[in-house]
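Q&A log
Question type: sequence-to-structure
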Amino acid sequence: MTINISENNLYGQSVLGASSASLAANTAVSAKATSTWRDALAAREAGPTAALRAVRSNIVQSIRAFRTDDLLQAATELGQHFIYANCAHAQTKSEVLESIAHGFHFPRQQAKNFDYLLDSLTTLVDRAGPQPGFVIVLEGLPCTHKFDKEVRETFLDVFRDAVEFWADRRVPCRVFYSFA
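Response status: OK
Response body:
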C-alpha cells in the first residue's frame, strides 16, 4: 500500500478522514490567530518599543533622543526591569555610587567602589534567578573635578562589563546615560 505524504500529517495520521466541522473550526482558529498576530505586530510597530528595536539589546549609550518615560514604558511592555538613578546632585565618585545604590535598591555596603557596583549589577542579581532583561537609565552624571573624564570612563566601563555579563547569558541589558 502506497501512502501519499500530502494525505498525512507529520505523524503519519490521515487528515483526509477529518470531519468538515473540525476543519472549519481549525480554519476559524487559524484566521483568528492571524488577525491577533497582525494586531500585535501593528501595536508593536506603533509603540515605544519600536524605538528600542533600533537599539542593540546589549549596549551602553548616551540617552540622546530617548525620553525616560518612553524607556520606562518600553521596558514595561517588554517585561524587562527598569532601573533608574538620578545623579544630578552628586559631585564625587562616592556620591554617584551612593545615588546608584539608592536608585537601584542595592544594599548600602554596595555603594563603596566600582568592584562592589559590578558585583551588584551582575552576580548579586544573577543569583536571584532568571532575569527578563534590563533597561537602565543613569541621569545627570556629574562633570566635575572630582568626577573627571577618567573616572567617568571607568564608571561606564563597569556598566559595559555588566552588559557583557548579561549578553553572555542572553539577557538583554541596555544602559542609557546623560551628563549634568
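Response note: The chain has six helices and four strands.
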